[in-house]
Amino acid sequence: MSKLVPADAKFREDVLANTNILSADYTPKQRAVLRIGVAVDTSGVFRIREDNGSENHLLDLNDGVALKTNKAYTFAWPVRPGLTYNFQLSVGAKVLNLSVEEAQGSMI
Known about the structure:
mainly beta, Jelly Rolls, 5-stranded antiparallel sheet, 3-stranded antiparallel sheet, globular
């Protein structure tokens, strides 16, 4: 398992609405599952962006329901080579914490 985002990389950082949160897209080398922990200070929809190079899709996590202010959430998302990934929030907010880990094989 390799950690993608250091614990302090997205800690108490302001983000703009509908803008990539990670400074660089994540590109997996093999099939894996991302374990995502997130908390924000403003209620908004948390999204994962998948891009295959010619088109991208914004997919609402939490069934499209806005995350509640100051609450912690966890998600698992399958990733595969050939796609890149990033995250967005539907509103401008402060990301209180964003932790993303890649789990492979028996770690899933």
